[in-house]
Each structure stands twice: as C-alpha cells, then as structure tokens.
Amino acid sequence: MNRSILYLSILVSALLLGALHYKIKPQIDEAKLKEYSEAFSGRDWQGRIAPDFTLKTLDGKQFELAENVGKKMIVLNFFATWCGPCREEMPELNRYYNEHKAEPFLLIGIDAEESEERVEEFLEKVHLDFPVAIDGGDVRKKYRVSSFPTTVVIGVDGRVEVYEVGALTNTDVAFANFLNFNRKLLDSGKVISAAEYRAALQKQQPLPEPKDADAGEKEAALDERGTRIASSMVCPCGCDDPVKACKCETAKKIRKALATEDFKGQSDNEIIRALNKRFCSGAM
Question: Are 66 and 52 in contact (CB under 8 A)?
C-alpha cells in the first residue's frame, strides 16, 4: 500500500477514534475536526526520512535522533515561551506523555532559540514532565519550522508521519492511531537501525525551497485604524518591534489582515488578541 495512503487512512481512523472519546472526554467540535484534517498538511514531509540532530536536554542528557529512531515513535514539539497557543497545548501534551511514557512513545519539547533562564522560568509555570531542549536554530532550519507550535511525528521506520502546524487540542485524536501503527511495526520488526537510518538520510534528496506566494507583491496600505493597531501591537514573532516596523513574515501577514479584512464591531484590544492567537509564529 502506498505510504501516503496508509498515513491518510491512519488519520481518518484517528478522527473516528476521537468520536469514541466523546463520553469520557469533552470532544472537539466539528470545526476542530476539520482543523485537524487540514492541519496534517505537511504533505511534502510525509514519508521522508526525518533529519538527524543532536540536542542537550535541560536535565543534562544528550538526545541524538539517530540513536533513538527505530525504538519508539518520536514526537518533536517546537515551541516558544512567548507563544500563546504553545502554552495552551502544553497541559494536553503533558497528559498524553504521562499516560504513554511507558510505551514506545517519546515526546521532546524543542524551544526556539531562547535563553535557558527564560525557558526554565516557563517550565516552572507549566510543569512539564517530558524532556525539553533549547535549539540554537539548526534543528528548526532542518525541519523548516517557521510557525509555533509545530509538531512532527517520526515513526519507527525513521520517516515523518505527521508535520502539523498549530496547537493540539486532543492528543488522543492526534497520536493514538499512529502509536498503535508504530507498535505493530515494532512487533513485526519493521524498524530502522541507526546505520540504516543514516544511510537512507544521505541518499535522500532535499526538499525544494518553499516558494513565497507574496514575493514581489506590494503590501496593501493600512488605514488610520490599521496603522494605529500595527503601531501599538508588539509582533508575536518574539522580537520587541511593533508589527508596523517588524520585517518578519508574521508581521507581513498581520499587516495584510489589517489592510484587507473587516474588523468592524471589535475593539482594538479584541483585534490584537485575535491576531496574536492567529499568527503566533516565528519570524523565520
């Protein structure tokens, strides 16, 4: 069976699994189910050998993907302490981790280039039990992460099964069937060794560079209110610049929204909160 079709089948089954959880756990609404279906949109990544990397976790241990792949399903969660949706999904990630850490399941949080002091302070507030590492930028670039949170699921065959941008609301929907699938691969011995993984990674052709759909497009002019909001709103990319001055892609998207969308009936603060949540992404 074609691997992409297989992954799609797993995703459909996962969505059906979520319906069975209705009586024991508040279920996401229809809009959220659609969001999950669309969120698994990293189709270019599905089936590719996951890029190798080595990071030191905050508890002093060294994690190398090549030495762990083939033993467990590995989930990478790229986050930033300033990202609201990242904070919102952490309790759900932590719950699933604690319920499944005895199984062939490994979850690692990867912070986006922030100071250890800032990350430690964040962890004290959210109380995470899964390992966390700070990326200096290399891992993010290898996985082409430009928005936070981004979650990547790597199977025991060393291949990317899920590349999802956006916060997870229900990890049972997101992970359960993938974990069952990988458990079966482990039981049948259909796993990849460290040597096989490295060899496959060397043979793999790099992904083409992403095209900027807005390249060469002139930004729409902001009206008086849009200018006021863009001048007072700190860009959620993590810098200290206002949206009006920031040159990152996040700021460009926010300015475009302010210039082209109808925000009548909302206060400036309501618009800022909505845009912060919608465009919680990095500047990369």
Answer: yes
